[in-house]
Design goal:
The complex is a heterodimer.
Chain A: E1 5-10, H1 13-17, H2 20-33, H3 37-43, E2 44-49, E3 61-65, E4 68-72, H4 80-89, H5 101-108, H6 126-131, H7 136-144, H8 147-157, H9 169-178, E5 185-190, H10 199-206, H11 208-222, E6 226-232, H12 236-251, E7 267-273, H13 282-289, E8 313-317, H14 318-330, H15 332-336, E9 346-353, E10 359-364, H16 369-376, E11 386-391, E12 397-400, H17 410-415, E13 424-429, H18 434-448, H19 454-471, H20 479-493, H21 497-501, H22 504-522, E14 537-539, H23 549-553, E15 559-560, E16 568-569, H24 579-583, E17 589-591
Parallel strand pairs in A: 1-2, 5-6, 5-8, 6-7, 9-13
Antiparallel strand pairs in A: 1-3, 3-4, 9-10, 11-12, 11-13, 14-17, 15-16
Chain B: E1 2-7, E2 10-15, H1 20-26, E3 50-53, E4 60-61, E5 72-74, H2 78-93, H3 109-116, E6 140-142, H4 152-159, E7 166-169, E8 176-179, H5 192-196, E9 202-204, E10 217-222, E11 231-237, E12 240-245, H6 258-262, E13 277-280, E14 283-286, H7 289-307, E15 314-316, H8 322-336, E16 341-343
Parallel strand pairs in B: 1-5, 15-16
Antiparallel strand pairs in B: 1-2, 3-4, 3-5, 6-9, 7-8, 10-11, 11-12, 13-14
The chains are: A alpha/beta, B alpha+beta.
Chain lengths: 592, 347
């Protein structure tokens, strides 16, 4: 009979989507049902914890029996009774379901700072954070350091903005500190909008207090008494956990008047974003908080001089702020010892696409792309060939296999035409058409352009139209040059970061995959076999066994033929859906 | 305080609150703009006023950038010229380009820039905005396909009129200036928005086919509608007023109300009185001014003799000037001898 049982169920958005709630309920009810329930129940905790990172293998559950932790992967509710019976009561872990090599490799090269408490503590209980030295750093800062010393420490740590720009955080704070104003603001930018990015979301869902603590430190540093967290309304779980965390922090006196008995007052309000990508841009975000339409404003003046309501304002990203408690707990030197010369610490990435281990990862700056994809990511899915990785989402660019040994930091990525970005990392393989990838991101930015400035409003639209015609086989000679020319003009003349970076996916794919563009335009051919208008499907007569499987799946009845005789695809009727290609067991369908 | 800076290799000085655009203008350096209006807050949307500033990585809008001591600005480099040209080219790629029949032709900033940048052939083509719905309001013609989203109309409505009747709805390429819920415009119809529109997107409904700017003569006068005395600039074609505007450097700073701007059709109305009328045998008949004034004098004199001065009352009009109103009350009190004098504004 176990003395102590702790069960931690991953309840980030990924965990919940995979059935975390059901797994947790099942543990509770099944533990109740067991004959030993009275003893076990008293001593067992079924906790919800934030994101564990390894979303590909959700629901992940830690089962701790008498101090020994076993991690299970891909659990569903039906699997819970067996774990209780064999492992918790019987003392023998269910080895079939225990995490294996993948999980070890996924975690091996990661260094967790920001995410160190995510997945370990209950994000809805402030005591869980306090048990892990929560609010120790901010107490130290407020009671024993001057604002100048605080800023100096941040500068010494080398922390740079994690939202994408990479501006040195300490330096930014110093501008605001020196700005002469009675009222200053600090804003946490949690308007994470890149497609496929979920770093900030996971941090707030997994450990909201770290970010709050970081904000209080920042407020003290620059001299702000009011703070805002600008967070997307599309993150209901994060909003809920943040709201609860703010209430708890207020109850314990970490927010409000006279924090830690000092003369410092600071409080934080939540402002929900209404779903515009551009509001992640700092000046548009400020306009949105002021109740205006979310349009960017021209810089200079910069927000550190004149921001919210015309007052000096610092806007930091969630990850940047969540780093701060750890920097002050372990010292700036410790933080500066991680990473490369100019990029310190770690970076959280949302690793997605065609790799085996997709999920949320935190790696030291300077790790190579190869290590991220083949070690942490567990290699390419299905053993397919690596083609590129897209970093920085719609503002970034792609990195080809020639740069597999590239050290991932701000400068190296910028050097090759990509950006660190906020942390999106989409892995692409041989089956991805790079023109189509550029189109995908451009569709996004074009749709999200606010419309304030001409180059972004009409320019991205025209870019997309040119790319569309290329992928549809209507590309013309000179289109590549036109794309390049217009892209450069949009970058140079747009007001904000959205327009200034929107052409990056186009420029980057042309730079590294110009041959694919040329194939589309000159030969009317999509080398990766993705662009539907350029595809033809035909039957390889020698391979076709006349099994009629393709006839059955074809949604438009474009395939005809007698049983056991080679079939025929009518190109006029074919809608290039590829269903026949996928279903054929004899490789008898030619896609090209 | 005055700051010193260099624009296009010319050393100049300007007030510390000036923007680069203002400093350039004060010193006779031309920078093209579409969304700028000196009476409104800087917006920085059109991107025509881009300039290069030494030390900044990319061009910035001259209209929004405050000057700094020692700043070095270039306003017309090859790069800047190319960016501006692309901006106009993009605008034209989403514009009806129907200058031949447009009410604004000859007076249109976009047309002028297209000419300036010699945009014969546009490299860009594609979807254009198409709006079939017509605004049913009685005064303003709103042709949003011609709108270049400079937002001057929205800003003037908010900053000057204080009405905020319009805003931009949607975003990106679909962005569109409209009243709430895309209803018909239902505001004060002061037409300030029309007066600032640089293209043919906003005009007066009554302007249609009455003569474009080049064909009209300009007559400066004072608005007859009230005592404010706003300065008007009438556009006259073949002895008919076809449109009213006002210059920005007038006493009313170019702003007018609905009456001043749109209620000019009475001038040529057949119903308009062009001579005094005297009721004779129960019928109103035209009379000369001499006859009329004699008639008034006789009547007032006899009433005063018979019933005393308080039997007479005078009613003034807001359409008269302050001076006229003052004189009239003086006349009633000092000449007629009564305090029975009132004004339509009290009614």
């Amino acid at each position: 009979m176990p003395d102590q049982v702790n069960i931690k169920v991953c309840m980030g958005t990924g965990g919940i989507a995979a059935g975390g709630t059901e797994v947790m309920d099942m543990f509770r009810t099944e533990l109740d049902k067991t004959g030993i329930k009275a003893e076990v129940k008293e001593r067992s905790n079924v906790d919800k914890v934030g994101c564990r990172g390894f979303c590909a293998k959700d629901v992940l559950v830690d089962v701790e029996v008498d101090g020994e932790v076993t991690t299970y992967e891909c659990l569903n509710a039906d699997m819970v009774p067996r774990i209780i019976e064999e492992h918790i009561i019987g003392g023998e872990p269910v080895t079939d379901w225990v995490t294996g090599e993948d999980y070890r490799k996924f975690n091996e090269k990661q260094i967790k700072v920001v995410l160190s408490d995510c997945g370990r503590i209950d994000p809805e209980e402030i005591d869980a954070y306090l048990d892990h030295e929560g609010y120790v750093a901010v107490k130290k800062v407020l009671t024993s350091m001057t604002p100048e010393e605080t800023i100096e420490s941040v500068k010494k740590s080398g922390l740079r903005g994690r939202g994408g720009g990479g501006f040195p955080t300490g330096l930014k704070w110093e501008f605001a500190r020196k700005a002469n104003s009675k009222q200053k603001y600090i804003i946490c930018n949690a308007d994470e909008g890149d497609p496929g990015a979920f770093m900030d979301r996971s941090i707030i869902e997994g450990n909201p207090h770290a970010m709050i603590e970081g904000m209080i430190i920042g407020a003290y540093g620059i001299g702000a008494t009011k703070g805002y967290v600008y967070i997307r309304a599309e993150y209901p779980l994060a909003v809920e956990r943040l709201r609860r965390a703010l209430e708890h922090a207020r109850e314990r006196g970490f927010l409000g008047e006279k924090i830690f008995g000092t003369e410092i007052s600071f409080d934080i309000k939540i402002k929900l974003g209404a779903g515009a990508f551009v509001c992640g841009e700092e000046t548009a975000l400020i306009a949105s908080i002021e109740g205006e339409r979310g349009l960017p404003r021209n810089k200079p003046p910069f927000p550190a001089q004149s921001g919210l309501h015309g007052k000096p304002t610092i806007i930091n990203n969630v990850e940047t702020l969540a780093n701060l408690p750890y920097i002050f707990k372990n010292g700036p030197e410790w933080f500066a010892s991680l990473g490369t010369e100019k990029s310190k610490g770690t970076k959280v990435f949302a690793l997605t696409g065609k790799v085996n281990n997709t999920g949320l990862i935190e790696v030291p700056m300077g790790i190579t792309l190869k290590e991220i994809i083949y070690d942490v990511g567990g290699g390419m899915e299905g053993g397919k060939e690596y083609k590129a990785v897209q970093t920085g989402g719609p503002s970034g660019g792609c990195i080809t296999k020639d740069y597999m040994d590239l050290k991932v930091d701000y400068e190296s990525l910028a050097d090759i035409g990509s950006i660190m970005g906020s942390g999106g990392m989409v892995v692409l393989n041989e089956e991805d058409c790079m023109v189509n990838i550029a189109k995908f991101f451009l569709e996004f930015t074009q749709d999200e352009s606010c419309g304030k400035c001409t180059p972004c409003r009409i320019g991205t639209k025209r870019l997309l139209e040119i790319i569309n015609r290329i992928t549809e086989g209507r590309g013309r000679k000179g289109d590549i040059e036109l794309l390049l020319d217009l892209s450069e003009d949009i970058k140079d003349s747009s007001i904000c970061g959205l327009g200034q970076t929107a052409p990056n996916p186009v420029l980057s794919t042309i730079k590294y995959f110009r041959d694919e563009y040329e194939a589309h335009i000159n030969e009317k051919r999509c080398p990766a076999g993705v662009c539907a208008n350029l595809l033809t499907f035909s039957v390889i007569e020698d391979n076709c066994k006349g099994c009629t499987l393709c006839v059955k799946v074809c949604p438009v009845s474009a395939i005809t033929g007698e049983k056991k005789k080679p079939h025929l695809i009518d190109d006029e009727l074919c809608i290039k859906c590829g269903a026949c290609f996928d279903v054929c067991k004899f490789n008898a369908i030619l896609k090209g | 305080m005055v700051l010193n800076l260099t624009i296009d290799n010319k050393e100049i000085s300007a007030s510390k609150d000036a923007t680069v655009l203002e400093a350039a203008r004060e010193n006779g350096i031309y920078i093209p703009t579409l969304c700028d209006n000196p009476k409104l807050k800087p917006y920085g949307g059109c991107r025509l006023c881009l300039v290069e500033i030494k030390g900044l990585p990319r061009p910035v809008g001259a209209c929004t950038t405050p000057i700094q001591e020692g700043m070095v600005v270039q306003t017309s480099t090859e790069r800047i010229h190319k960016l501006r040209r692309t901006v106009v080219e993009l605008l034209l790629s989403d514009h009806p380009n129907d200058c031949m029949v447009c009410v604004k032709a000859g007076d249109c900033l976009l047309q002028e820039l297209a000419y300036l940048y010699d945009l014969q052939n546009n490299r860009f083509y594609g979807e254009k905005r198409q709006y079939t719905q017509k605004d049913g309001n009685p005064f303003l013609e709103r042709d949003m396909e011609k709108c270049i989203l400079c937002r001057q109309c929205v800003r003037v409505c908010e900053e000057i009129a204080g009405v905020s009747a319009i805003e931009i709805a949607y975003r990106g390429f679909k962005a569109k200036v409209c009243p709430s819920f895309e209803d018909d415009l239902n505001c004060e119809f002061c037409g300030q928005c029309v007066s600032v529109c640089p293209t043919g997107a906003l005009s007066g409904k009554a302007w249609s086919r009455k003569g474009r700017t080049a064909k009209t003569n300009e007559v400066t006068t004072t608005c007859p509608f009230c005592g404010c005395g706003c300065s008007l600039k009438l556009r006259v074609s073949e002895n008919e007023v076809v449109r009213v505007s006002s210059d920005p450097d007038t006493i009313n700073e170019g702003w007018l109300c609905v009456k001043g701007r749109f209620a000019y059709e009475f001038i040529n109305s057949p119903d308009r009185l062009d001579a005094p009328l005297i009721r004779k045998n129960g019928k109103l008949e035209k009379a000369s001014w001499d006859e009329t004034l004699d008639y008034i004098y006789d009547k007032m004199d006899s009433i005063k003799q018979e019933h005393g001065p308080d039997a007479i009352g005078g009613l003034l009009s807001a359409r008269c000037t302050n001076e006229e109103n003052y004189l009239f009350q003086k006349f009633m009190r000092a000449v007629v001898g009564t305090n029975n004098v009132d004004h339509c504004a009290r009614l």
